[in-house]
Amino acid sequence: MKIGNFRKSVIMSHLLSHPNLLLVVPVRILSIIKFPNFLSLSATRVTVLLLLKSCDLLCVGTEGGGVYFLEVPSLSLKDNQTLLQDQITHSLPDDYRCGKSLGPVEALQEHPQQSGKILIGYSRGLVVLWDLSIRHAEQLFLGKQQLESLVWERSGNLFVCSHNDGGYSVWAVTSGNTCNHQPVSSTIPYGPFPCKAISKILWRTTQAGSPVLLYSGGMPRASYGDRHCLTIQQDKDHVTLDFTSRVIDFFTVHSVEQEREFDEPSALVVLLEEELVVIDLQTPGWPSMPTPYLAPLHSSAITCSCHISSVPPKLWERLVNAGKAQQSRQHTHRSWPICGGKNLAPPPKQQELLLTGHEDGTVRFWDASGVALTPLYKLSTANVFHTDCDPSDDPQDPSNDPDMQQEEEEWPPFRKVGCFDPYSDDPRLGIQKISLCKYSNKLVVAGTAGQVIVLGLSDERSDHFVDVSVVDLLYDREGFTWKGHDRLEPRSKPAPFPPGFQPLVVVQCLPPASVTAVALHAEWNLIAFGTSHGFGLFDYHRRNAVLARCTLHPNDSLAMEGPLSRVKSLKKSLRQSFRRIRKSRVSGKKRTITTPTSKVQEANAALAEQEEVAPVQRRIEPRSADDSLSGVVRCVCFADTFLRDGTHHGPTLWAGTNSGSVYAYALEVPGVGSGRVCERGGASESSVCVEAVLGKEIQLMHRAPVVSICVLDGRGKPLPDPYEASQDLAIAPDMTNAHSVLIASEEQLKVFSLPKVSAKTKFKLTAHEGCRVRKVAMVVFSSTAQEDYSEHTLVCLTNLGDMHLFSIPALRPQVRYDCIRKEDISGIASCVFTRNGQGFYLISPSEYERFSLSAKVLTEPLCFVQLDRPLEPTPTSDGTTVQPQANGTHKNQMGQAEGQTEEPPSCLSSPILDTPLDSPLSCADLTLDSTAELTVEDVRDFLTSVDEAENNLKNIKEEEGRSTGILIN
Amino acid sequence: NQQNHSTLTIKHHLMCVCCLRQFDAEYRRFALKRNGPGGFKEFYRLLQTIHHIPGVDVLLGYADVHGDLLPINNDENYHKAIASANPLLRIIITKREDEPIIFGTNSLQRRRKGLGLTSLRATGSGSTHSKGRSGLMIGPPKNFRQISSIIDVDILPETHRRVRLHKHGTQKPLGFYIRDGVSVRVTPQGVEKVPGVFISRLVRGGLAESTGLLGVNDEILEVNGIDVAGKSLDQVTDMMVANSHNLIVTVKPANQRNNVTHRRSKTSVGNSGSLGSVGSTGSAVSHDSQSPASLSNPITASNSIAEGDSDDGGDDDDEGDLILENDCLTPYDSHRVTNSTTMPDRDSLSNGPHSYTVGRPLPQSVSLPSNVGASLRDSAMMISSHNGNSTHTTSSSEESMREDSNVTAL
Question: Disulfide bond among the record's keywords (chain B) (predicted)?
Fold first, then answer.
């Protein structure tokens, strides 16, 4: 589904501005405009379109100044109707004509009362009232200023045109007067200094009195020429809406019934480059309305995302309530003024959450249960720290912003509207990793400056002081100096936290490098986190750091230099100067639509260039141990498994690095014994600390970065999440048979047995396919045929954008789908999988594409749009348009992928289908391809050498002896 | 009868091997009766006296009719050498560098292996083109290891070459670059241009360059058995990097003049038993020396184990991920659990190292000398093929050694 791409073509937005005109229409016209015969008729470009209310005629204005008329819906050109410029010019007075062309057609407007009359505005300023039936210019309005747009007053007695110089003029239409020389009035609202053009103007009458005037642009060129503004004016009320992105178009929702005397605008809908903003025009003060859909995902750039399947109803309800409390502070309560059709999709079987982390330190919670992502709740982590803003000020509430209040007094009366704000106050606040425990309502959010925040859900507002624990990951390394950004300053005094997730404790990693991995085990009250320097383990219940381990290669001094990316000054003034630079003086003129021919030329030119440029070379070298960034921790995870020996399991922590190292720690968690979770509480618990003992270190020979680590139980299934087993929410893991650990590196997938780490199965993906693993997830595929049958599968997204599915633990390739374009690096990097075989990735900074690898779990837009106009010549049943797919840019690949998934996936229901290797159902036999790969791992015990092994033996014997001794005693 | 009376003219030179920068030669020419010294030992002593090097441990080699350098270290091949003289017999004497004591214990077999290696070096350095190369390092025999080989000569078309590069253990960079390009294919429809991947550059002193088997503009057809057609440059790069420890590339050499012809390879592969065939001798050497090498190597290998550094892992095949076990990690809370469950603990622990050594398969890198003697004229190739054989034993011996050390660790 489309979530927020507002960069629509201009033509489409023009049509959008027509009241009640539905999206179905522009889509059809856009496709037909490409007809070659149409293009050949007019070599000039289309500048403006007008569909008459009767819906039988489309007027097309062109850059050459001609107006063409097309019959609707056949879209055949009415040859004899075409109005070329010279038909107008001959009737002009000589002094106005002065030999110049009238310029492109800038505006076409139908007379509101008399059908068959249209107002044609030419760029030079001339406006013509054209009678279509008799093909005659009824009136001429000899404007002198370059024209930008036209709008009728409802009665048809007046029209308003806006100009290039930032002014607008009102013309009276009085019958009989064929040639008007002067407008009734002419105003430059933000004069007298030079102003920018008013690109569009609307004039809406109200019963109450003076008309509402709405126009975009017109700002004083020197001081505010870079703002994206829209002005609403009625009498003394004057508001300049200040947007963060370019205004593409806007329209009002008002009464369209002919019999009504006044427009009575109820809402203003503004389409911006990055978002859609709706202003309530009926409530005094013109507040904005929250959008129920089309909320901009990227109000601040998305830095990470996290998906939570089957959210417990309790948590869901509390989140919704917290979100409602937030919204009520900023928005009006009036209902959404736009009817966008009916949703036919059945209510979702389970609630799903998508969490997006943003550059400005916010985490947004989206309802991802259905097709549209709906904002639920927004968490800001900025107020945990002392930032440049006033510490007491709540950053979530723009009305408190001192900046705003200051601006309130200046002229023009700016008001910041919309939530798209690409400029982060402090890039260190950016969210890097999120982990949520849906059963305990604990959330861990980790950011760019090494901050790891543990939050708990609370329904009450609270003012409290947040503890900060510092974990120095380099405590045992001397001589390293961090040259990157500073850590974020903790607040010195208690801060107010609104209902929702409230911080419990902050763990600050030192050096404050960006957090690269995070894991939460709410049952053990532990969080693990990793940065480019090492990883740590923190007990948030007892508020103490359990472990800090440096993973840096001793020679790796480069990692200490800090992030290679920006370390910018964070002052607000700088931010604003950026804003100014960004906006060029050229306010987006519409004439830059690339035609297909120019694209071909571009491609040809690119090809020609390619041949001249020396070919790209790639060096072939094995990965070396001391590559920079080798110490970056790529993943951390918790597991209750067998690390020490084959009979006793217990809490373990696993961490994998960029250089193919895996560290496994055995944890002593008070109350969590070997295999049994003891009842919490009791005096002893608080006194005992969690301990971590290094158990194993695995160095993958190929040294590729470890992407993911997952422990598999005795049946080869991934271990359930914390609480799932203990609260009977999932099938308890098999603790009787030997466990294994799946380590996915960028190059290989490997399953090792536990506790003795020896390779059982592996798949060398890179060696076979030449692709590298980017994302890995354990996914449950349910059968469409059999209700109770499901399989655990490893899904693996590669740098080529394709999905490989592997059975576990056999690591047998099952299927492969193309999914993301391989050039779409940010798309691949943003991909997140759900538990049941779906996934999301960003196809643009503002849009998630949702895909499904599972035939069972589909999320498709099932909806219809009711049409009350006879637009469609082809009777599409009862006017019901069901769009099975409304996707944008990746139709081919996605279509392919989804097309394949429509069939029952071969791995589930039918073993005969196109599995590349052999029947996946016979997971047990390992006779085919992977046996060639299957080799016994060369395991070397470095620490357990001769003496140590003997010592171990001795120790065991001694302990045995002791224990028996105790028994005897 | 005639042979009995003819004498041999023997030319030899002496080289210092231990210090490779020095290269001083001494030539002696003398006559010898065909039935002169009865056996190898006598001959050996004779040479020592002639050169005034009594007590210096040397290795002997001779050039046979094919121009190959073959060892003299027992009566049998001594007689063979004598018989092959017509009438000139070139003997090459190489001073054996100081060996660790352990090598001395089994001098006869050790010598055999060492000779194989040194003779190779001698050929290489003797040839004019390598003489000109100043930077060529010549290492002591134990440092020789296989770095490359041509494989599958008999199944590949003549225009293709399959090269195996052994990265393991060497500090040398793999040392080549690849690029995109256009390859011309002849199809039934005519000549067709298809995108291809080519070697664009060889790094000076790198492994790829030093083998002489890969050249700039060679088209890469396969990487470790996987066709690269249709794959992007980045994909091929990733595949090569992923296989870099044991890279097998099939190339279509830009220079087709040095190609191995089928007929030739067939005969040598067949090990037809011709006396001077490098193939037969080479393989004999490698098979023979396997067991002694495994005995003689533990010192070096166990050193690296003791160090436990990551470079040691590099010697390994890809299979050998390094697993470090922490000895302070006691079996699971044996102090808490008071029942008999500690028994299995101990068992599993003590069993652990044992089972590591069990069932280790033969390394995949066993390269049978199918390629040996493929091109006798091309000295560079010959070096590599020779190298292949003898150093293969090194690597396999290290592996068997590792098992040894593990066993002793128990």
Answer: no
Distance from CA of A940 to the nearest CA of B (A): 6
Choose the closest CB to B323 out of A620, A648, A696.
A696
Q: Is A756 on the interface with B (CB under 8 A)?
A: yes
Q: Are residues B154 and B251 in the same domain?
A: yes
Residue A497 has φ and ψ, to the nearest 5°, of -125, 120
Q: What's the number of domains chain B is made of?
A: 2
Which residues of chain B make contact with A967, given a CB cutoff of 8 A?
338
Q: Which residue of A has its CA nearest to B323?
A: A698
Token digits for A305?
Answer: 């995302």
Does residue B26 lie in a domain region? yes
A963 inside 8 A of chain B by CB: yes
A290 Cα distance to chain centroid: 18
Does residue A646 sit at the B interface (CB-CB below 8 Å)?
yes
Q: Are residues A266 and A145 in the same domain?
A: yes
CA dihedral A751, A755, A756, A762 (to 10 degrees): 0
Task: Give A945's contacts in chain B (Cβ within 8 Å).
Answer: 305-306, 409
Grade residue B375 by pLDDT with cuts at 50, 70 and 90. Answer: very low
With 80 as the cut, is the pLDDT of residue A286 above it?
A: yes
Between B22 and A385, the more confident residue is: A385
Question: Average pLDDT over chain B, rounded to whole?
Answer: 59
Domain shared by A130 and A234, yes or no? yes
Together in a domain, B152 and B217 = yes
> Which residue range forms the structural domain that includes residue B196?
148-258
Q: Is A701 on the interface with B (CB under 8 A)?
A: yes
- Among residues A730, A763, A796, the one where a domain terminates is A763
Nearest residue, CB atoms, B235 vs list A701, A747, A770: A770
Does the distance separating the beta carbons of A747 and B178 come in below 8 Å? Answer: no
Residue B357 in domain: no
Contact B99, B88 (CB under 8 A): no
Q: Do B224 and A767 touch (CB under 8 A)?
A: yes
Q: What is the pLDDT of residues B183-208, one digit of tens each?
A: 888 888 888 889 999 999 998 888 88
**A616 inside 8 A of chain B by CB:** yes
Q: Is residue B178 part of a domain?
A: yes
Q: Which residues contact B177 (CB under 8 A, 6 or more apart)?
A: A617, A618, A619, A620, B199, B200, B201, B202, B203
| Contact indicator for B134, B23 with CB cutoff of 8 Å | no
| CATH at A114 | 2.130.10.10
Residues A319 and A296 reside in one and the same domain = no
Domain that holds residue A702: 629-670+689-763
- Where b means 16+ CB within 10 Å and e means fewer, A386-413 reads ebebeeeebbbebeebeeeeebeeeebe
Nearest Cβ partner of B335 from A645, A946, A959? A959
What pLDDT shows up at residue B226?
Answer: 92
Are residue A354 and residue A373 in the same domain, yes or no?
A: yes
Are A698 and B321 within 8 A, CB to CB?
yes
pLDDT digits (tens, 9 = 90+) for A428-441: 999 999 999 999 99
Cα pseudo-dihedral B216, B221, B226, B232, rounded to 10: 80
Total-model pTM: 0.69
Listed residues B53, B79, B95: the one ending a domain = B95
Alpha-carbon distance of A650 to A893, in angstroms, equals 45
> Using the beta-carbon criterion (under 8 Å), do B237 and A618 form an inter-chain contact?
yes
CA A51 to chain centre: 35
From A544's Cα to the closest Cα of chain B, the distance in A is 22
Q: Which of A674, A700, A771 sits opposite B333 (nearest CB)?
A: A674
- What string of DSSP letters covers B117-182? HHHHHHHHHHSHHHHS-TT-----GGG----EEEE-TTTS-TT-EEEEEE-TT--S---EEEEEEE
Cα of B186 to nearest chain A Cα, Å:
23
Q: Which of B234, B258, B282 finishes a domain?
A: B258
